[in-house]
Amino acid sequence: MDALKVAMKAKESTRISTIRMVQAAIKDLEIANRTKPDATTGDGDIAQLLAKLVKQREESAKIYDEGGRPELAQKEREEIAIISEFMPQQFSEAEAAELIKGVIAETGASSMKDMGQGDVGSARALSGPDGLRQGFGPDQGAAGLSLRAACMTPRHLCTRHS
Fold first, then answer.
1. Is residue 79 part of a domain?
2. Residue numbers of the domain that contains 17
């Protein structure tokens, strides 16, 4: 709500419309969730919604670029930047690699049959504040950083990355 007020005072029309669109999408999600047994909308649900909105805009920008409409593609990219400000911070590849190495060491995973333990450990390690999972990109949560991404073995033992 504060972001909307600041944008209104600064008369940033793109920012105002994008924030209002996000608020409307969250409201739609809350209405849709009313029919479910657990009628709450958590941070994870909102993060998934924001990721979906970013992905839609990325696809639109790509289509606009291919269609020779760079001004519309630029508008979509501006919206992506605004929406991304409200998303959880994503791990860098170096941070993710460190977490995965730590989980492998902690669980003692050494083969593909240990993947279940590694996935549970990586899910815990990748949980952010309020249990909100973080990842590499907008549509990749803990699964994007699971031990499957690390071939489930330490790098010096993995033949795939030699």
1. yes
2. 2-84
